[in-house]
Amino acid sequence: MLTKSRYQARTMAEADISQVVEIERESFPTTWPHTAYRRELSNQMARYAVLVDSAEEPVAAPPRRRSLLDLLRRGDPAPPTSDYIVGYVGVWLMVDEAHIVAIAVREGYRGRGLGELLLAEAIDLALANRQENVTLEVRRSNVVAQNLYEKYRFLKVGVRRRYYSDNGEDAIIMSTPPIQGDNYTEYLAYLRDQWERKHEGA
Ligand SMILES: CC(C)(COP(=O)(O)OP(=O)(O)OC[C@H]1O[C@@H](n2cnc3c(N)ncnc32)[C@H](O)[C@@H]1OP(=O)(O)O)[C@@H](O)C(=O)NCCC(=O)NCCS
């Protein structure tokens, strides 16, 4: 059964990094190393959320390289586990604008409304942090993602020519209207309601 309660968004933790990197590898041509995610998790400006599939078993996270302190400790600690992660989103909080730096859903889970849950989570984070709007860059060819953003009223506001170094593709800059007003929050509530009607019990 596909219900909102099967998929829960929560703050990303260190034990989630290897699954996030796995999803990133199947989603983007260029990827970040584990260390970059570790830095991001302690970056005051950044907020990362993961979407958990509670119907799947937790996954053992690979242990970090052991430090001298670990070696001096007696006994082997139990390896950390992480819930089964099906997507993630990263947001940077600028002065009054939230910038989505990454959003991706596991390949086998796409087209089930989970990208929407992640985008809604990012917008909720922006609202909670008193940001005025949400922006992002998207490849010109990425029509699926552009459709998702347009559903949430992002508008195309500019172009960064040859922004992506792997193939020289342009980035389209997209931005929401002001998110703090009733207009937008009522629209979000409408979308949430539509999501539940469409996916509950499917
Ligand atoms: C973009 C991405 C996050 C969307 O996640 P998803 O879970 O597949 O999308 P959802 O099922 O939530 O769909 C939400 C909306 O996206 C659009 N969409 C989704 N799949 C689509 C498809 N195959 N064709 C066209 N539009 C599509 C639709 O507007 C859809 O709304 P609708 O169901 O009312 O039509 C996912 O495809 C992904 O991880 N892609 C690879 C990484 C990526 O490109 N990230 C964006 C970087 S800017």
Structure description:
The chain is an alpha+beta fold. It has one domain: Gcn5-related N-acetyltransferase (GNAT) (Aminopeptidase, 3-Layer(aba) Sandwich), CATH 3.40.630. The protein has six helices and nine strands, in the order βααββαβββαβαββα. The protein has a seven-stranded mixed sheet with strand order 1-2-5-6-7-9-8. A two-stranded antiparallel sheet has the order 3-4. Strand 5 and strand 6 form a beta hairpin. The longest helix has 18 residues. The protein is globular. The mean pLDDT is 92. Bound molecules: coenzyme A. The site of coenzyme A (COA) has 19 residues, from strand 6, helix 4, strand 7 and helix 5.
Fill in the keyword field for this structure.
single chain, 202 residues, alpha+beta, Aminopeptidase, seven-stranded mixed sheet, 6 helices, 9 strands, 33% helix, binds coenzyme A
